[in-house]
Amino acid sequence: MVTEDALIEQFRQFTDGMKDLHKQVVNLTRVHDSIHEFNISFGTFQTSIHLQQECLAHPEKTCKKSSLLLESVVNAKPEINTSDIILPVVNQRADNKSKKRQNTAPVKSNLKKRKRTATASQQKRNEASSQTSLSKVWTWDKSTRKKIPKKYHSKDEMDKLETLLLYLRNRAAGRNTVNGLTIADLVRHSSMSVIRCKEMLQTLMKLELITRKKEKSGFLYSLRSNTVANTL
Hints:
Elements lengths: L3 H52 L6 H13 L17 H42 L8 H6 L7 H20 L8 H8 L3 H13 L3 E6 L2 E6 L1 H7 L1
Antiparallel strand pairs: 1-2
Helix pairs in contact: 1-6
């Protein structure tokens, strides 16, 4: 027969084994969580490197410049001094006609120059008026302003959010972009890092102020139609 002490000893060994198993399972879950966090951080690091490469503009090669210089030297035409050429004497009537043509030629050229300058000045005025018509202030709705996270409540962070929204709205009003803007364009305009700009765009999407579409060139960001209607 099994005594009571033997049963107690067996149960004690069983409980110790279960405790050791629990500790090992806890350690295994910690390792699994740390590996998962590492995969997420490494994935964001790779995407940021890819976006940073797209934002950089590589300089052109010097070989193209040298080839253009060689072509300009080869295609250069020799200058001819017209003073050394002796023209034959013609009748007085022909001389009078040539003089009249020479007198009327500068008048026509002056008229053409005036027309060109007038059109250029008008284009500049139109561009200036279009730039002034674009708004430089973003009006927040009370409900959306309350939903903004606390880390963006400072003036600098709010200014960054407003610059992104104003740039999207002004480009949409100017009809320079039909589908939207890439993150590279927004990074160039806002002079922020790619990761910081991506975080702010995600918060604006959560606030339902902008939308994101996937195209062949990448993700395109644009304002929602109801947001544009409310702000205009």
